[in-house]
Amino acid sequence: MTLVQRLVAAKGAMDDEFAVECPYCGEQTTLYLEADVQGTLIQDCEVCCNPWRVEVWWEDGERYVAVTRGDGS
Ligand SMILES: [Zn+2]
Q1: Relative to the CA of 22, which of 3, 40, 46, 58 has its CA 20 to 30 Å away?
Q2: Contact residues for 68 (Cβ-Cβ < 8 A; gap 6+)
Q3: In 10 A of CB 20, how many CB atoms?
Q4: For residues 16 and 24, which has the higher predicted lDDT (pLDDT)?
Q5: Mean pLDDT computed over every residue of the chain
Q6: Residue 13 and residue 47: Cα distance in Å, rounded?
Q7: Of 50, 56, 55, 54, which is closest to residue 73 (Cα–Cα)?
Q8: How many whole angstroms from 43 Cα to the centroid of ligand 1?
Q9: How far is the first Cα of the chain from the last one, in angstroms, to the nearest whole number?
Q10: How far is the CA of 2 from the centre of ligand 1 (A)?
C-alpha cells in the first residue's frame, strides 16, 4: 500500500521529514530526505529490515514520497 504524507515543511531547512508507513510491518516511521534527493531509492525498514522502494518526486513545488515493497511481493 502506498502512503504519501508530508510531515514537516520547515522553512529554510534543507532536509524534509515524511511520515511513512512500512508496507511490510505497518510501522509508522519518519523518513528524512536531503533536499536534493529525488527519483527512486531502496531503503530498509528500521523495524523489520525489509526493503522499501522509495519514490520521491516534485509536484507544484512540493515534494512527495511513496513507499512500496522493494522485493516485488
Ligand atoms: Zn517494516
Answers
A1: 58
A2: 2, 23, 52, 53, 55
A3: 23
A4: 24
A5: 82
A6: 27
A7: 50
A8: 11
A9: 11
A10: 13
Distance from Cα 63 to the centre of ligand 1, integer Å: 23
Angle (CA) 18 20 39, round 5°: 70
Q: CA 33, CA 37: separation in Å to the nearest integer?
A: 6
Specify the pLDDT at position 70. 94
Neighbours of ion ligand 1 (CB under 5 A): 22, 24-25, 45, 47-48
Please give the residue that has the higher pLDDT: either 14 or 25.
25
C-alpha cell at 34: 536531503
Nearest to 25 by CA among 55, 4, 53, 45: 45
Is the pTM value of this prediction over 0.85? no
